[in-house]
Amino acid sequence: MPNEIVDNLIEINPQVIVDGTFGAGGQSRRLLAASSRDDLVLIGLDRDPEVSRYYEQNTFGDPRLTLFVGSYEKT
Question: Could you tell me the pTM of the whole model?
Answer without folding.
Answer: 0.83
